[in-house]
Amino acid sequence: MIRQTSSFQESSTGKLYLVPTPIGNLNDMTPRAVEVLQAADLIAAEDTRNTQRLLNHFEITTPQISFHEYNTRERVPQLVAKLQAGENIAQVSDAGMPSISDPGRELVAACTQQGIPVIPLPGPNAALTALIASGIAPQPFLFYGFLPRKKGALAAAIAQLANERPTLIFYEAPHRLAKTLTALADGLGAERSVCLCRELTKRYEEFLRGTLADAVEWTKDATIRGEFVIIVAGNEHPTAQKEPQEQGSLTEQVDRLIASERLRPTDAIKRVAKQNGLKKQAVYNEYHGLNKE
Ligand code: SAM
User: Fold this and answer.
1) What confidence tens digit (pLDDT) does each residue in 235-275 have?
2) Residue 131 near ligand 1, beta carbon < 6 Å
3) Which of 139, 141, 151, 195 could staple 134 via S-S, CB 3.0–4.6 A?
4) Cα separation values, 99 from 20, 49, 88, 125, Å
5) Which contiguous run of DSSP H or E holds residue 211?
């Protein structure tokens, strides 16, 4: 095991601080977060203009550098070099916790590999804030984040969750909410309890509780605006998961999916490949008899 003592002891390198920021209410910024941002040599921010507004509000004068999903590859080694040279860097995303459906993971991994101390601060996070108010079992839970966008991949991801006992937590953009709720109702069952948590910590914060069928119905008339977390009850009666080899041959698995979920053969092949950890081509060849002499 590689031991990292967080802290407050001297380190030959700088330290990487992971600093959560408010998800809508500036009063949720902790005094420690302000202190750390002020004391850092540099702030690595997902969107420097957005973070500048926060810094102005708290009269923080630390310089910033952009760090987002599109420059992660080049930025990580640059930031690691600065940390190795002794600079203390604070990483922030646009809102909430860094790395939670936001940039950060690669930087943390690089720092831990290089023995650079990584110091996380607690603070605002949409998923947990939603979960504790949902009225749905708060543990165990499974945080998923954003579901895939493409129809086949979306259905496949949900199918893999259908048997899970933990409460499920999803993030979703308002313009995709209706489609995602319909897919969840189709894949998990329309009677599952759900809580839509909207605009958390903001002026128009609200919670819509009911079944997935109710939620789908609600989307038909509602003007859907704002930010949402979707909390869905887990499966209370999960059936024992079968090992892939117990699920029949690859061809049988594909045929079963086509029949039960009315998937197109290409989507069913894709899903079976994923479920069995195989390349799509391998399942395609097997299904179409191309492996036979
Ligand atoms: N890192 C953030 C965190 O710790 O929660 C999440 C960032 S993710 C890019 C943005 C998504 O989080 C939104 O699309 C929405 O699903 C959820 N979210 C963020 N702020 C929210 C809020 N105030 N109310 C409801 N959902 C929110």
Assistant:
1) 998 886 656 556 788 888 888 888 878 788 999 999 988 88
2) no
3) 195
4) 10, 19, 18, 11
5) strand 206-211
